[in-house]
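Quick start: read one record
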Amino acid sequence: MKILLLLFGLLVRYIIRRRRFNRRSMAGVQGFKSYAIAIFTITIEKLANSLATLCIILAVILFLLK
């Protein structure tokens, strides 16, 4: 369980960061097709990143309590 939480958190953070990197243009600006898609994508990524961070923290706490 602890290992799965840690791996899940790290994988989600990796996927989000890779997607952000791939969206960047030569100028370093993220490109979206529309404003609504940008807001939706950024909001979902922030929520997923927060969930992943909580999973990582919980996994570390569970490791320390063992």
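The chain has a mean pLDDT of 95.
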